[in-house]
Specification:
217 residues, alpha/beta, TIM Barrel, 8 strands, globular, binds D-xylitol-5-phosphate, binds zinc ion
Length: 217
């Protein structure tokens, strides 16, 4: 399914009220809920771990898309399966055995994603495409919401060609807004993560803001 999926990132939500925030974005038409897990080691920021993600699951009725910005990944795969992740994405830069990691994610019953930092070329995942359900192209250096978009449309086009007939989503993460979204979709992306563009204003009590942004993206 190559229709465009919008995946709001709850990294920009009210951390004291995730349940309400998740309901609000789903009410406004979110296709997936994007959950950013950071360990203060692979990236210079810390968010939440498996118990919090399991609590989010109680509110997510769509697809829970969990983006791991952690290293190592393998010791935590079962915990995220138990937490109810539908898609679990690991970074190709997070360890020397991405092949094994993707196999383990699928074996645990989840869809497997592989993410690339802006400095990592498309070729880094060439040998992984048969094991991946999703490739996440970072358009910011991971760690924080609200950063400036780095143009990776050439990488997206290369990946879409490398993927060919395979059923692999190309997800974009970082600086997606109504201006960048159409360019990315045209290049071959079909899942767009958006944090600050969706949660602009920082409050869930602004359905006009959510509505306008989610549908405009
Ligand atoms: C960044 C995270 C993103 C982040 C995107 O490290 O992986 O998912 O929430 O935020 P925006 O859309 O504000 O760039
Ligand atoms: Zn993310």
């Amino acid at each position: 399914d190559r229709s465009i999926k919008i995946a709001p990132s709850i990294l920009s939500a009210d951390f004291a009220d995730f349940g309400r925030e998740i309901r609000a974005i789903e009410d406004q038409g979110a296709d997936w809920v994007h959950v950013d897990v950071m360990d203060g080691h692979f990236v210079p920021n810390l968010t939440f771990g498996p118990p919090a993600v399991k609590a989010f699951r109680r509110h997510v009725t769509t697809v829970m898309d969990v983006h791991l910005m952690i290293a190592p990944v393998d010791p935590y795969i079962d915990a995220y399966a138990d937490a109810g992740a539908d898609i679990l994405t690991a970074h190709v830069e997070a360890g020397p055995h991405s092949h094994r990691t993707l196999q383990a994610i699928r074996a645990a019953g989840m869809k497997a994603g592989i993410a690339l930092n802006p400095g990592t070329p498309a070729e880094a995942v060439a040998h992984l495409l048969d094991l991946a359900d999703l490739v996440c192209v970072m358009t910011v250096n991971p760690g924080f919401g609200g950063q400036k978009f780095i143009d990776m449309t050439a990488k997206v086009r290369t990946l879409r060609e490398m993927i060919g007939d395979r059923e692999v989503h190309i997800e974009i993460d970082g600086g997606v807004d109504p201006t960048t979204a159409p360019l990315l979709a045209k290049a071959g992306a079909d899942a767009l993560v958006a944090g600050s563009a969706v949660f602009k204003g920082g409050s869930v009590d602004k359905p006009d803001v959510y509505g306008r942004n989610i549908k405009a993206i």
